Amino acid sequence: MAEILIATNGYKETRNAIEYGIWLARTLRTKVTLLGVTEKLSPAAIDDHHPLEDIFEEAVGLFQERGVEYRLEVQNGEAEQVIPQKANSGDFIVVVSPLGRPSLRRWLTGRSIRPLMERVRVPILYVPQMRLPVRKMLVSIGGLEYAESAESLAFQIGTACQADAAILHVIPPTDLDYPSAREVRAHAKDLLETDTLPGRSLRKGLELAQKAGLNARAVIRQGDVVEQILAEIKEGNYDLVCMGSPYSAHSLRQLYAPNVTAEVAEAGLCPVLTARYKPVGRD
Hints:
11 helices, single chain, ten-stranded mixed sheet
């Protein structure tokens, strides 16, 4: 079982990651490493009171109170560099929250989840707000193979906390008029019964969820992919969203395709779990 790596740079909102990471560790019955990143540490500030001290003190109290096995680690540097280095060194599920970046930096480069998704090879659970316990989860598979790792981990979490699961496919608008696209659009209401790639993916997802003992259903929407996922999150009042990572693929598509998972995460409606596709038999 992967261990939980909770990351904090001392920013107050990272307390959400700590609270959620503790819940996840207890749910999956695994250990926690709390990684504190001291950013922009100057020699003159060595004796100053760092915000990490308060957060670590609170976290240790919660670990002990809730019976979670833990270890503490502190590293200097930029969080977007330090977190991936640590995460990629072991078998982890990384739990992070917003790192308190200035609004100008967010406007120019997006929230910290974007560079973390690009650099972290293990699963990431981004927690912009608390939604516990997890009673309803949305699994957005997009009809693509690279969502399978996120789907599998989502069902593992869902089984442990007895959550209901909705498996979502969004049919995007397209100007291309080729046979498979026409068939998907024509069978939007009964897509689950078709032999299209989305139809097969939905059936496979439902089968895996049901084998895991989950109460699962398929949801099909049409329109802009990000807008439809966000609309489903709001209307369904989900506690957790699980999506694949575009960095599972190794192609030029990454250079021009929108990062749907990052856009959904940045909306901050609920925690988002993302995992890269890992073929069976590969490390």
